Amino acid sequence: MTTPSITPVILTGGSGTRLWPLSRSARPKQFLKLTGDATLLEQTIARVDGPGFNDPLLVGGEAQEDMLQLLAGGDASIILEPEARNTAPAIALAALVLPSETPMLVMPSDHVIADTRAFEAAVGKAAGLAADGWLVTFGIAPSGPETGYGYIQQGEALGESGFHAARFVEKPDRETAQGFLDDGGYHWNGGIFLFTAGRYLQALERHAPEILAAAQAAFDAGHCDGTVHRPDAATFAEAPAISIDYAVMEKDSRVAVVPVSMGWSDVGSWDALHEISAQDESGNALTGDILAIDTANSLIRSDGPKVTAIGVEDLVIVATRDAVLVLPRGGSQRVKEIVERLKDDPAGKDYL
Amino acid sequence: MTTPSITPVILTGGSGTRLWPLSRSARPKQFLKLTGDATLLEQTIARVDGPGFNDPLLVGGEAQEDMLQLLAGGDASIILEPEARNTAPAIALAALVLPSETPMLVMPSDHVIADTRAFEAAVGKAAGLAADGWLVTFGIAPSGPETGYGYIQQGEALGESGFHAARFVEKPDRETAQGFLDDGGYHWNGGIFLFTAGRYLQALERHAPEILAAAQAAFDAGHCDGTVHRPDAATFAEAPAISIDYAVMEKDSRVAVVPVSMGWSDVGSWDALHEISAQDESGNALTGDILAIDTANSLIRSDGPKVTAIGVEDLVIVATRDAVLVLPRGGSQRVKEIVERLKDDPAGKDYL
Is the N or C terminus of chain B more exposed, i.e. has fewer CB atoms within 10 Å? Predict the structure, then answer.
């Protein structure tokens, strides 16, 4: 039996502000060139551009249509969500336009994967499990007791390919996370999945039928021009806005986890970007028009003005044409406090 | 005998970059609003706008003509130096256009004086000495063993008004400066002078006749349209480029120093500006569109983008439309290293 080619389903609807002032509501992280000359979305597409993969299917917001067309090139199909309803409904839309037996590799569009070979090997294992009817999630090897991710506990082994997923744990506290690492057999939930379209729809029918119904109705009342699908807004809005984890993965009995160590990062903060960036001999990651003298262990990035620093260390400095952020290294989670203050300020909204 | 009114002679030719990126070659410090709604030049003019003072006479560079006209209003006379030849020739130009008996109060245009009353009292004392033929310099009460200023040692008392200036000392090292403070009777040389026009010309004739000759020839070959004097470039260029201290004050036998404690600052660095600025309860001096959260003892200034900081302390952050500077508080002397690097870089010159 030949394995059918995999269709990459790339979720582009995210709208984070954790990389403010660079990421903005109109230009979220996936549309930024954070680690090189290509945007994270382009890198995600390139990662699955090869033998064994069909052309990708992008699922994103209506406001992003132009950007998706530009970055996806001519080969991708696009589904425009009338509004963001979290991942379970978005993936339902994708599953409904694919043949039932097609394996779907569902991926966020704003992650970095340094080790492409490890990724491909894991996809191969997951494809085998998906062909056997498993809903597969990829388990990222934890590098520390992070409290910002969900964890997956592995159960019995499924041959050489992976494990039965025994338990999903929402973001734990640090003590609990450290316990997971000490115990072993826990993985980060990186939001990457593989299953056949039919298997996902079947799981939806069983665990979240209202999502399936709303997605189907949205297609029935919507239309498709060429490669762009435009589901109907009013009917899609009736889908509960819940994640695939909550709607399906935590409930189904045949969920597998394929562990993978592939240099993964969700680039969820300026500190995370500093860690995965190329650094000079002083530990600086400098991007843009930067002049740094006697400066160490700092991330300095400009997409606008010339940024100069002298005699500083352990700083994050980010400048755009209209806004500058300065905070200590290790403190970049606090960007959200800045963003909250800007939201509360009528004049601040211009910067979001 | 009534004292003749004093003509303020304001030297506007300075071109410092110590407040880069705000101060630029085309817009040096005296044309910046550093401590309020008025530029330092406007503040300097306002300080001598009152009884006992004639309209001011501004001496500045040709490139500054438009800015001088704008800031000086209609009452000032202007002398445009064809090129910068330091203070002795600039003051010679001023002395040549004034009646011989007129007291000239010579002042830099980029200093801050917080205590105007103390300044006025010192000017009154100096005017009395100038009427008796003294070349008077104002001795700033030292607030520490600064190595960036020249020092004046006082000699015998001249009544209640001041002292004979016994010795001028160029910028000393720290140990020497500390010795001056321990000994007492030393003052900073703030570059503010008072003497009659005729007395200055007489001193030039004696100690630096080539300056007097070049200035006189520059007027003879130049022209004057209304209130703007335009000395001739070729002849003025023959004046040695030396300071009034070196050309005259250190050499003449009848030089007096009038001590004054008047909240003086030459605003010679971002740290100096931080010290004299109004600060919030956390020791921050914030100017422009700034959002600072959990930030202490920092100077943050923007003349362009919105600048945000969170969780930092003891930083200097300065942003303009095209350049950003970040350095630790106490380290602002190092701005010159940045400026040197920009000078050496063909693309960097755009920022100077």
Answer: N
